[in-house]
Amino acid sequence: MKKFQSGRYVQQGHYKSFQPNPVNRAWVLDNMELIQLLGQADRELGRLDMYSDYIPNIDLFISMHVLKEATQSSKIEGTQTNMEEALLEKEDVALDKRDDWEEVQNYVAAMKEAIARLHTLPFSARLVRETHKTLMKGVRGKHKQPGEFRRSQNWIGGATIIDAVFVPPMHTSINELMGDIEQFVHNDMQYFPELLKIALVHYQFETIHPFLDGNGRVGRLLITLYLVSKGILEKPVLYLSDFFERNRTHYYDNLMRVREKNDLLQWFKFFLVGIIETAKNSISTFDNILKLQKQVDSQIQSLGSRTANAQKVLHYLYQRPMIDAAKVGVVAEISPASAYKLIADLEKFGILKEITGGKRGKMYLFAAYLQLFK
Q1: Which residues contact 196 (CB under 8 A, 6 or more apart)?
Q2: Are residues 273 and 128 in the same domain?
């Protein structure tokens, strides 16, 4: 790693683009501090993966993890939707916020579809393109070749390419560079720790910037996708966008530091610290979910014959902790009058909280549960 060369700048008329070197090569890991961090990250991921086996109905709670990832990853790109807004139906979102809302919903859909596709398609350039197509469908980047690698030059930062912070490689080399990433991912002949592999893949992907739009979101989504594809995580329960968002300046600075100073070590350390912190936070969240679930289950036992209906509603709320009376009626298969009675019971326990303040179109939030993801 000491001899690592990230690439070179190439004069392109009135600007310079950055041409990264291939990553599919032999690597030597020779830094003890990094090896120690790697061991800690592996242990925390192992603990988190055990939780996904231990918690019954884990898939119920994964939906909220994905929603948090979608809002945080989109926020890095300037989207303003928060989790409460992301839970609304489209018609309930203010017109000036719908574009942001749709981008978050697309991220959720892209993550779910990509995870499902891993059963039939390996981690590959094709999977990356399919995921990008879902991410950009019908939103602000819909005219920027969704699902296709770019056929023109792009740039990062700056009003024009002349004052850009960074200019990725020319479009003519994208297929070759993405092919190199794919070969690196599946190279079993030369050992390289998986967590460092995905850290390097993320860096290289962001450097290539293969799409005209959506590169940041796709690049962060690939981290979770990779961990699941390699069996490091049984379920998609680790998402780094919250860590990257809270440390946004360091995130961008460390990526640029690799390009400008060949300092891959600093990027690896930052990435592993993110894995460690995020895994610990995820474990804490799952612990608190189990405690809340136990508390709520004991509360609704006093409802007698209505307990079963309350359990159906809670099953829905763990996936989407916002609901109205009509949805309660559908989920529990009860009349409107019974739905309002059940809502009143759940409000009395403090499980549901009315958030609209109006007499009509009332929405209710499972606030204690949502708070666990903030």
Answers
A1: 29, 38, 268
A2: yes
Tell me, what's the pLDDT at 140? 76
Residue 102 CA to residue 93 CA, distance in Å, equals: 10
Cβ-based neighbour number of residue 145 at 10 Å: 18
Decide if 1 is inside a domain. no
**DSSP for 37-84?**
HHHHHHHHHHHHHHHHHHSTTHHHHHHHHHHHHHHHHHHHTT----HH
CA distance 348 to 341: 11
CA dist 1 and 7 (Å) reads 14
Nearest to 135 by CA among 240, 215, 206: 215
Predicted local confidence at residue 56, as pLDDT: 75
Rg, Å, the chain Cα set: 23
User: Is pLDDT above 80 for 359?
Assistant: no
Say if CB 124 and CB 116 are below 8 A apart.
no
Give yes or no: residues 281 and 320 share one domain: no
Domain of 183, CATH number, reads 1.10.3290.10
Query: pLDDT tens, 47-93?
Result: 999 988 878 778 888 999 999 999 999 999 888 899 999 999 899 89
Final residue of a structural domain among 285, 301, 331: 285
d(CA 351, CA 353): 7
Q: What is the mean pLDDT of residues 257-266?
A: 97
